[in-house]
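Re: weekly structure request thread

Next one in the queue (155 aa):
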Amino acid sequence: MRNRRAPLIYQLLGTLLGIGYFPLAPATCASLIVCVILWFLFRAPVIYVISIVILFALGVWIAFKLERFWGEDDRRIVIDESIGMIITLFAVPQKILYYAVGFFLFRFFDIVKPFPISDSQKLKGGWGVVIDDVIAGMYSSIALWIFIYVFHRIA
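Done, posted below.
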């Protein structure tokens, strides 16, 4: 059943309109593109919250569906990176420095996967695909707010 062609709607949603097919670091590309989208489109915290809730539910469902075609946590599935980046940048002042630091922090935590991020990937049915990015987003957000606080104290 693996490596069969998934329905187009699953592919479009799971790969963030094809970003997941990028041959080099698709998760990093998706994270960067989401940063740009957040910069230009997201202004109100309520938009962040609604997006997190919708993308979380959609991400778990799509990852579950795509794993049946592509196998567990396939690198093409990048909808989870969008959730992690939105959590990372939630209510952060719109400054390029903060967005850049948030991007690098999220990629760091998503790649290194400190506890409990690594353990969360063991969850089945799409949950593991999404939960690790949610936790990485939370870690990144905390680290980013510490950076912002320290930066303001020394600047």
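The chain has one domain: 8-154. The chain has seven helices and no strands.
Next request, please.
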